[in-house]
Amino acid sequence: MASQPQQFSGARSVARKLALQALYRWQLNECSWQDLVQEFADAEDMPRADRDYFHVLIEGVVGSHQRLEEQLAGCTDREPRLLDPIEHAALLIGLYELVFEPEVPFRTAISEAVQLTKRFGATDGHKFVNAVLDRAARTLRPAEH
Question: 86 near 120, Cβ under 8 Å?
Fold first, then answer.
């Protein structure tokens, strides 16, 4: 059996989980993306994570935050600042992947965000995340959808 492509690897899933935690923290107390990467460099799960992809996600989401927020505002019925912080972080990661990581299939971006929200979010938060990212994928990746 061939090994899985990197975007499906468990190491990328762990990187997304750590990115969710870092972006949750960032929403509570903003700092530079460099400080955030440094703060999570010694996280318990980091040895199992795709460290480079974690870095890409943090730098990308923080660096393109305004654009992602505008995209998010167009896909939901509430202002992004009013979202639950876990759902918000998962949506930012998923949107970042949909916009800036074309090698990540849209279904993977959505599924990973939904799984993170199921694990860390409110009871039905994953349904909201799924609906918002599916709506975004129809616009951002129409050829794939």
Answer: yes
How far, in Å, are 20, 78, 81, 110, 115 from residue 88 at the CA level? 9, 11, 8, 13, 14
Tell me if 59 sits within 8 A of 37, measured CB to CB: yes
Contact 11, 57 (CB under 8 A): no
Q: What is the pLDDT of residues 111-141, one digit of tens each?
A: 999 999 999 999 999 999 999 999 999 999 9
Of how many residues is the chain composed?
A: 145
Per CATH, the number for 8-140 is: 1.10.940.10
Could you state, in order of their start, the residue ranges of all structural domains in the chain? 8-140
**pLDDT tens-digit profile of 76-117?**
988 898 999 999 999 999 999 999 999 999 999 999 999 999
| CA gap 125, 57 in Å, rounded | 21
Residue 116: left if φ>0, alpha if ψ -120 to 50, beta else—which one?
Answer: alpha
Sign for the pseudo-dihedral over CA of 109, 111, 117, 119: negative
Note the pTM of the prediction, 2 decimals: 0.92
CA 137 to chain CA centroid, nearest Å? 14
